[in-house]
Amino acid sequence: MNQPAISPTLDTLFQRTLIRQPHALALLDPLNKARVTGHQPRRLTYAEADTAIEALSAYFVESGLPANSVIAIQLPATVEFVLTVLAAHRAGLVVAVLPLLWRHAELTAALNRTAARAIVTMSTVDGVSYADLAMHAAAEAFSIRHVCGFGTDLPEGMASLDDVLTRPPGTTRAVIQDGRKAAMISFDVTAEGFRPVPRPHFSLIAGGLAMSLEADIRQGATVMAAFTPMSFAGLASSLAVWLLSGGALALHHPFENEVLERQINEHECDVLIAPAQLALRLGDADLAARMPSLRNVIGLWRAPEQVAASDAWIAPHAPLTDVYLFGEAGLFGARRGEDGMPVPVMPGPHGAPREQSGSSIAGEILLTPKGTLGLRGAMVPIAAYAPPQPVGDTLIAQPPRDYVDTGYAARLDRPSGAICITAPPSGIMAVGGYRFLSNDLQEWARRLGQGALLTALPDRLSGHRLAGRAQDNTRAREALSELGLNPLMVEAFRDRSGPA
């Protein structure tokens, strides 16, 4: 009898490289990790990483977390993030990624919506106590049974995962390695509100393949990931690309330009994956002389409508690949030509690499009847974005939809037939990787008091930036905190606030 083909998981990819080269370098921490988290930077080989993954996986099993249950993770771009994700998968768990900029209310909503059984965080990140945030959110999530953290001075009741890493691995659990199983849950904001987006392993791997094949990343490359990992694009561009290349993954906690440049040179990185505007800024600064080891640059566009009007890439020794991001719905990439300008993106199926005849289909781009951009393909979670059932029609079957409407306004260019993305989804703001409904700004501003102003200003690097003015900035920060705004967002308000 023929056995059905089983697609690989992220852990399968890791173990393939582990067997082949156990003593090769696998993971490299940010050089400024001591400032960001209080930990000293670590360098791990595949064998050392595997030992740590085994120890964490055994702890999750011994803690009584059932197979296929959800474990929430809120961590910065450090080695601990990678180890925790792979350990959770090895224990048969599903990872829910929680962005660092989230408010208490969003953390609680995400934990309750996913019925997460555990949460893993860092004691502090950039001076903010994420351990306290996790403990407070867990207190309002009835499903949470375990709160775990890396770092020192953890609150009472939070288990130390640093201690777990010092112990020999314990109990293991037999887990079927099948790429069709659920791997992660990320979270998006659409016009309908807050939306959990589950994905299987093969969907994450498809996203990583779309990037690595289009950018022509060589096997064994050292990849520098300078993009926040707590999203589909963040996981695909760091974890998936690294595991597919079988090389080393260097991590950078965004963003310190001098530290990033020093990391690239010290680790002799071949590939840089970063927000596109940051990549373009580096490209304008004599990239060949300052970072000679780079051979590929992948720029991730959180605002894909800006790609067509972007500046030319002037570092031919390291070609730039534009990756268009559409929230948690999906992505596609297009490598720039010799002139350094963005290439036209045509509707229909697109391969990876895009220009190579007979290449594997990475996805499909289409225009919806509403004049918006639609996506379909292996990486696109169609069921998660299914439109709500019309009221009163619960007994009438709705026609199946085989694509996701991203909400981005788009049209066809008449002379070339290429897709032109013209505007982001209506009513949605993005500050870095943090997306929220524009109506939320009105509620936040109302809490600041009379004469206050809070607005999201367009920003080429992060999409939007939060700016405000208030009669009493101390009271303004207190009001935002009372509303549940993440401390980093409150600090952003303070830094950009001026006297009335």
UniProtKB/TrEMBL annotation:
Xref: SUPFAM superfamilies: Acetyl-CoA synthetase-like
A matching Pfam family: AMP-binding
Keyword line: Ligase
InterPro entries for the chain: AMP-dep_synth/lig_dom, ANL_N_sf
Keyword ATP-binding annotated: no
Family as reported in the entry's similarity comment: Belongs to the ATP-dependent AMP-binding enzyme family.
Protein name: Class I adenylate-forming enzyme family protein
